[in-house]
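tokens incoming
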């Protein structure tokens, strides 16, 4: 299975982010062989909540891609048919499939460039709930220097992150630099008490240490195969 995320263990991060996001209704655009899709889908299945809508252009993309049928088979093999809905659509057009303020997490990984990131923020921002996560592959200044970005004269991502007004106004944003790098954008919450409750802040008053785990369970819970 091909994925630039494999070498630095980004799969662990995607699993953690899926769980932290709710999990609720999630979207991934850009599947290739399905590495990140399967991890997000498995995290949702394991938690018993949420759903993943997974998009790609498949055979309609002229560069490296997998076929629709190969990914559909893989979803079935991983027992994720009830959790993952596979769709063929473009990264920007797909946003029209969702109502505003309904999504917990959106992950965009389509050979990202500054132009793609700008368009995706515009398309998906209104769909994310407060506290929701907008994730992009790439974003580090070093990732902007990779060969194909230069060869095809693509617009760099990092300057777009620094100048994007929607991102500045609506999100708290971090770039993780290890290759291939990733941008984590957490949509800022509102002062609405219903929003704060959904983010778990109703539990902060009175009994802030509401989560408990026995010492002997700690590593077993976080590292089940250790
Ligand atoms: C870098 S790969 C995705 C890697 C994958 N997320 C992983 O974990 O390995 C990029 C994928 O984006 C798809 N793609 C490219 N442009 C797209 C677009 N505009 N809309 C939807 N999918 C697109 C390609 O077909 C390809 O499968």
């Amino acid at each position: 299975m091909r994925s630039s995320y494999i070498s630095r263990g980004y799969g662990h991060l995607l699993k953690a982010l899926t769980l932290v996001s709710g999990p609720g209704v999630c979207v991934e655009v850009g599947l290739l062989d399905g590495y990140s899709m399967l991890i997000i889908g498995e995290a949702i299945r394991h938690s018993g909540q949420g759903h993943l809508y997974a998009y790609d252009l498949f055979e309609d993309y002229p560069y490296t891609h997998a076929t629709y049928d190969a990914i559909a088979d893989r979803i079935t093999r991983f027992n994720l048919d009830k959790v993952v809905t596979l769709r063929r659509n473009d990264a920007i057009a797909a946003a029209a499939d969702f109502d505003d303020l309904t999504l917990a997490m959106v992950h965009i990984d389509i050979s990202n460039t500054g132009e793609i990131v700008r368009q995706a923020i515009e398309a998906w921002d209104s769909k994310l709930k407060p506290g929701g996560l907008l994730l992009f592959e790439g974003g580090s200044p070093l990732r902007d220097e990779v060969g194909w970005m230069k060869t095809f004269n693509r617009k760099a991502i990092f300057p777009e992150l620094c100048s994007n007004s929607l991102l500045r106004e609506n999100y708290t944003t971090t770039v993780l630099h290890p290759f291939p790098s990733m941008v984590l954008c957490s949509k800022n919450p509102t002062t609405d008490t219903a929003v704060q409750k959904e983010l778990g802040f109703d539990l902060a008053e009175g009994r802030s240490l509401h989560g408990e785990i026995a010492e002997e369970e700690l590593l077993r819970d976080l590292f089940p195969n250790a």
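note: The chain has one domain: 6-191.
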